[in-house]
Amino acid sequence: MRLGSSGLIADNDISYNKEAGIDIRKNADPKILCNRIHHGRRSGIVVLGQGQGSIHGNDIHHNQEAGIYVLYGGNPHIRDNYVHHGEAAGIAINEKGQGCIMGNLISGNRWGGIDVRHSADPTIKQNIIVNGLADGIVIGKDGSAAVNDNTISGNSGCGVWIMSGVKPFIHGNQISNNGDHGIAFVKSKEVPHSMEGAAAESHSPDHQVFDEPSDLHEVSGSHNKLPRHQNKDAAISYNQIFNNSGGGISIQGSETICICDNTIHANRNSGIIVHQTAPVFIDNNAITCNNGHGLHVDGYTKVEVKNSGIYNNSYHGILCKSQAKIELNDIIGNGMNALHIEEANQVRVHNNRLSSPKDKVIEVKGSTTAHLYDNTIKYISSDVFEIDKMAAKSTTSGDNEVILTQSKEGRLSYEMTYSDKPDWKLENPGPRPLLDSLNGEPRPSLIAITTVAQVKTSQSVSANCQGSKVCVIL
What we know:
- The protein is mainly beta and about 475 residues long.
- The chain is built from no helices and 49 strands.
- The strands form 4 sheets. The protein has a 29-stranded parallel sheet that branches.
- It is elongated, with a radius of gyration of 25 Å.
- Residues about 190-200, about 205-230 and about 390-474 have low confidence and may be disordered.
């Protein structure tokens, strides 16, 4: 359909075609409703060359290329379709493609459930993207997207896979039980991860050939616009990221990233893994019960960690090997050190609440410069600090709970003052855990996998509380 045509295509069985089952271009704006589009040798539906259309309620499956392929300024409204068991991407958006992808069930496709590349920029909202044989959503080279309120689960690869240099807005999603990281930013050289096969079909605006595989994705047209962030940086906010086989969020890119107001829970690697050069801002997150570190920072980046609750992760609360500012956090109940600083420069640790039930609260190793001040430390084991002889340590004085000093001879020592504060609770913790006194009474843990909204932990406030239990309640 082309040249401004419209019309209705409804309740048809469209199958075993050599070309696309339905082809929309040149400002055509049809309604494609409740069709069965399957076993095509190419894509099920192609929208390009300023084509539009409302694609609603269709069953699209077992096509050799993308179930729906949008490119060259195509701008459809894709809603409430079942797109499944394709041999490439479920929905692919490429070459300045646009559109609103909303409320679809996308399942069992060989490549990304939704694949976005090459100046495409759609809105992806309220979809269920599950059980794919690769990643849930791929945002490839020069792609962009607003990814809001989706359920992304059970895919063999990452929940959301993003190439370095892309600045998406990822907000309000549930990303769980995927076979790799929940969200992964990767370096450009790692692009083969999901490039092949996403959309091998070729098209041009006037009909024939475009032979760049696996690229699609963009949104324009005021009728398809939904609210989007206005930040210049990539943003990850208000997501629930849990039970993924890799880390919750893995960052190995080159763009500034803001991570705020997320719950990152029970992933099989660390909660957040940072290994890049650009700054990363981590604010107001709950990072709990991950089978690694709560936060692992490595490389030459600058990381700012604020207002977050980092609780009950299997290893260190924070493992820091880079420049960092760590303030106003609760770092409590992790399996090893609350804070482990190693081979890092200019680490500032200010006004945090720190505790470790099994190991040193703070451990500093290697050639390190760190500044600790105004932190409150609760200790459970008898050892509070371990500072490597090679570490260069400096602190400020003042109303510190713990003061570390370095003598003129280079010897490191510490002195500790302890006050049993009756109310160790933050006034406005957001998703951070609250620490409440239970007067020594244990409380059983309860882990709710499907709705991880707020985290609370509790322990005795006694100064000599060896062997105290730390209980996470979600």
